[in-house]
Amino acid sequence: MLTQGAMSLRVGQQAPDFDVVSSAGKSLKLSEFRGKKNVVLYFYPGDFTPVCTKETCGFRDMYAQLESKDTEVIGVSVDSDESHKKFAAEYKVPFELVSDKDRELAKAYEATSFLGKLLGKAGRITYLIDKKGEIAGIFQGELSASKHVDGVREAMKKLA
Predict the structure, then answer these.
(1) Among 120, 116, 130, 122, which Cα is nearest to 158's?
(2) Is pTM beyond 0.85 here?
(3) Domains (range + CATH), the chain
(4) Is-catalytic flag, 52?
């Protein structure tokens, strides 16, 4: 499923490729976005939790703006496809959500935290990946949704 082994991810480095299917059944491959779109790949602990909902709604609210700048948003958590579908419907999420049950994607993107491992969930981390497939921004903060949303908003200005 993933093409790169464990490493410490940094800005300016190639993002690990991925090939996943979203909860809506859409195939998502990082390599297919290359040359066409930037990707906001955000990992969050769980659907319907306060900070995760705020973060997802933050990306939802700026989605049209991101789309207009050739940027796709993909949300990832360990929740089931069924949970993602309910979450997306309830909060009118216009982008794809991915169920990462075995945490393969989370491991490749170092979206694991001590608390997350304890609870079997992904850590909260967001990557902005540019059209070249390189990491243009990394945003962390377990309890802050705005750090991720605002971080992407600022980093997008530099990509333009």
Answers:
(1) 130
(2) yes
(3) 19-159 (3.40.30.10)
(4) yes
